[in-house]
């Protein structure tokens, strides 16, 4: 079984691929506050995805991969295409894929102990 860390080290620095790249580097390079893939998916889900299990149920794999390819290209995909409206779970699945492929977690390793202390304190005050 391959070590996930080794896979990430082989990624080209400065790659246009928004998936699997360091979030801080990507945001600095794109001059955005939120990655476009997350912004567009969140807007779509707020408008069309008010259904049970939007993040629990998976979308069709081919639709997820097509969306990923479109976000990795220069052009922002049209999420109002019929294929995405019929499979709204693929948009939620793409968000999960984005977060899963980040090389560093959103809740950073450096701050992990502070997060756990904070959680412990909030549980004790309940």
UniProtKB/TrEMBL annotation:
Keywords linked to the UniProt accession: GTPase activation
The organism's place on the tree of life at top rank: Eukaryota
Keyword Ribosomal protein on entry: no
Ranges for domain Rho-GAP: 21-126
Protein's name in the database: Rho GTPase-activating protein 31
